[in-house]
Amino acid sequence: MDGTRTEDPDVYDHQALVRLLASRAYREGEFVLSSGRKSNFYLDAKQVTYDPVGIRLVGEAVYELIMPFGVQAVGGLTMGADAIVASVAFLSGERGTPIPGFIVRKEPKQHGLQKAIEGVFPPGARCAIVEDTLTTGASALRAVQAVRDAGGEVAVVVALVDRQEGGAAAIEKEGIEFRAVTTVAEIREAFHAGKG
Q1: 38-71 pLDDT per residue, tens
Q2: Residue 95 and residue 63 in contact, taking contact as beta carbons nearer than 8 Å
Q3: Which one of 17, 79, 112, 152 is separated from 130 by 20 to 30 angstroms, measured CA to CA?
Q4: Strands 101-104 and 73-77
Q5: CB distance 10 to 37 below 8 Å
Q6: Concatenated DSSP letters for 95-129?
Q7: What kind of architecture, by CATH, is found in domain 14-195?
Q8: Model-level pTM?
């Protein structure tokens, strides 16, 4: 066994995912975030969500978190959600509980059907919104609004990583359940343990 899977193929290995995030996605130093705020660490979750082992671990983790909510679709704002949505949709089909996926565009298309949502979005669907990294919650809330505007309902927002900077509270303030696969504190701890 390579340390990335448990003996049960339907159960993901949380510690393997955290170690992968710590070794491939987490960096310390001085960084400017997309919000313009400064940070002493940076987390590029796409280094894991697009990794062959990482995409499976992420899909398994998110799938487990959304299943209790009885969702009919999973989606999120492009680009942070793209790989996660695809992984969960694929895995759900493998498990016999198909959950279609969709992506919310940052801007609606200016041609064709001019859609804000791409992919499979069943009318009136109960949805899970996913995100790679949650900071303020603004990206997730944009996706929530797009789903609501399209007649859907959001049952839960799931972040691969909660940076623990107020995003969870912003989601919950909207009356939506929030779950995180892991936190930046857990990843930081694994990062420093791996250096020792």
Answers
A1: 999 999 999 999 999 999 999 999 999 999 999 9
A2: yes
A3: 112
A4: parallel
A5: no
A6: TT----EEEE-SS--SSTT--SEEE---TT-EEEE
A7: 3-Layer(aba) Sandwich (3.40)
A8: 0.91
